[in-house]
């Protein structure tokens, strides 16, 4: 493997709550009155218009160009980070390469203070308080609208983002932030099925409906699904040919309930987000999985166990769940120039390769193709299906923020499932 050695941190009770699940799980909290009210209270009305107006929910079919903040001005062009200054970065644990952080400090004579959080509720509470003056934050597009409406973001000056040309063309002007006024894409990932060929005799990829393997009683007690309400429930919808994984139709939600409770009864699934360590350890043979965790699996196999036994399936036509994470500059930060330079370097080919080698989560840059990643040793050939391609993102289906009533209905079903039906 080129670049930095991927993390092989000990698996602890804290690290089991993986970054990907924390991000998605925190979105439920965003809909909670406490967080939503707090963010609305932070808004001076300069970007959100009427505070009582219906909330804007971006979607591929409803792209949004957010208004520029009047309170937080774009920084001037041509500036350089002040030597000896401090850049405060707020992120999930293990989601940035330590080598990149050290190299950035050396290149720009800037001291990086990295703070981490456990979930989006915690992060947004601290960001909304404005007490800690974070410069850079890593949200998902699900929370972007509320951050903009609350005037917590600084518009980006693209003169500093000279590496943006390395991005996939589609993500240079994304549907969730037309004109990329507030965000850069950071990582992309798909959701599919992982399995071990020594524990699962079924060729999952050859099945007419691979999702059915998660209801195959041959693997009762040896399967798992993601402990993430929206991702798990979206999988049930996709199994039934329902491409609208953000449906608010009560009949669709009832279908999800019936099939999840059936799975609970017949399969006794493990509900977890530790797939990247648990399946390599042999705790189960097949599971729902994020692509970044599939790429991480080989590094957690016991010594002398070949990674050739690992597999990952995602629909060949790309009509599965595909999402991405973002990086933004917070208005409360004291070092917006260094923050812009930091975001730009995340889009550098070499820096992105270093980050990918450490996190397993793929940057959406044109250089990262399945053939190249396999040839460079980042991904074994048998897991090349975990590499997200541009065409996947073009036709893939994202998880969106849900209206409050539908969100509550989904959560009621998920709580019933988690409680054992």
List the helices and strands and how they pair.
Layout: H1 19-30, H2 33-42, E1 86-92, H3 98-108, E2 111-117, H4 120-129, E3 136-137, H5 144-149, E4 183-196, E5 223-226, H6 229-239, H7 250-267, E6 270-272, H8 275-278, E7 286-290, H9 291-296, E8 310-313, E9 321-329, H10 336-346, H11 349-359, H12 370-375, H13 390-395, H14 404-418
Parallel strand pairs: 1-2, 1-3, 5-6, 5-7
Antiparallel strand pairs: 3-9, 4-7, 4-8, 4-9
Helix pairs in contact: 1-4, 2-4, 6-7, 7-14
Summarize the structure.
By secondary structure, the chain is α/β, with parallel strands linked by helices.
Tell me the β content: 5-15%
Number of strands: 9
Compute the number of helices: 14
On the 0 to 100 scale, the average pLDDT is 87
Give the helix level as a range of percent: 25-40%
- Structural classification: alpha/beta
Number of structural units classed as domains? 2
The major pleated sheet works out as: 9 strands, mixed
The H-and-E topology, N to C, reads as HHEHEHEHEEHHEHEHEEHHHHH
Task: Describe this entry's structure for a reader.
This protein is α/β, with parallel strands linked by helices. It folds into 2 domains: 19-188 and 324-388, D-Maltodextrin-Binding Protein, domain 2, CATH 3.40.190; 191-321 and 398-418, 3-Layer(aba) Sandwich (D-Maltodextrin-Binding Protein, domain 2). 33% of the residues lie in helices and 13% in strands. Strands 1, 2, 3, 4, 5, 6, 7, 8 and 9 form a 9-stranded mixed sheet that branches. Strand 1 (86-92), helix 3 (98-108) and strand 2 form a beta-alpha-beta unit. The longest helix is centred in the middle third of the chain and has 18 residues, at 250-267. It is globular, with a radius of gyration of 21 Å. Mean pLDDT is 87; it is low at 1-37 and 43-53.
């Amino acid at each position: 493997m080129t670049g930095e050695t991927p993390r092989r941190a000990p698996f602890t009770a804290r690290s089991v709550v993986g970054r990907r699940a924390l991000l998605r799980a925190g979105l439920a909290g965003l809909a909670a009155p406490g967080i939503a009210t707090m963010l609305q209270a932070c808004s001076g009305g300069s970007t959100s218009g009427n505070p009582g107006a219906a909330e804007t929910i971006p979607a591929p079919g409803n792209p949004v160009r957010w208004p520029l903040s009047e309170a937080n001005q774009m920084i001037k062009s041509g500036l350089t980070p002040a030597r000896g200054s401090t850049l405060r970065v707020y992120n999930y644990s293990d989601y940035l390469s330590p080598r990149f952080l050290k190299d950035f400090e050396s290149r720009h004579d800037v001291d990086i203070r990295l703070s981490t959080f456990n979930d989006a509720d915690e992060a947004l509470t601290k960001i909304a308080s404005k007490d800690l003056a974070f410069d850079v934050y890593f949200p998902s597009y699900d929370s972007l609208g509320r951050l903009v409406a609350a005037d917590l973001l600084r518009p980006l000056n693209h003169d500093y983002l000279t590496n943006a040309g390395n991005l996939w063309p589609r993500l240079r002007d994304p549907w969730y932030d037309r004109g990329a006024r507030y965000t850069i894409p950071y990582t992309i990932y798909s959701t599919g099925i992982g399995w071990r060929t020594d524990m699962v005799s079924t060729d999952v990829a050859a099945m007419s409906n691979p999702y059915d393997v998660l209801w195959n009683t041959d693997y009762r007690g040896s399967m798992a699904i993601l402990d993430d309400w929206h991702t798990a429930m979206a999988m049930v919808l996709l199994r039934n040919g329902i491409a609208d994984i953000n449906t608010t139709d009560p009949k669709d939600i009832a279908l999800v309930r019936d099939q999840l409770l059936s799975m609970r009864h017949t399969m006794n699934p493990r509900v977890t987000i530790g797939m990247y360590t648990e399946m390599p350890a042999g705790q189960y043979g097949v599971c729902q999985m994020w692509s970044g965790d599939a790429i991480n699996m080989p590094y957690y196999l016991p010594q002398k166990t070949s990674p050739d036994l690992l597999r990952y399936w995602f629909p060949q036509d790309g009509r599965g769940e595909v999402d991405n994470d973002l990086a933004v500059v917070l208005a409360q930060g004291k070092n917006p120039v260094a923050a812009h330079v930091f975001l730009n370097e995340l889009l550098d080919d070499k820096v992105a390769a270093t980050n990918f080698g450490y996190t397993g989560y793929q940057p959406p840059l044109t250089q990262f193709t399945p053939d190249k990643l396999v040839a460079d040793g980042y991904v074994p050939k048998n897991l090349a299906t975990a590499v997200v391609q541009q065409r996947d993102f073009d036709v893939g289906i994202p998880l969106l923020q849900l209206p409050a009533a539908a969100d509550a209905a989904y959560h009621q079903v998920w709580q019933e499932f988690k409680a054992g039906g």
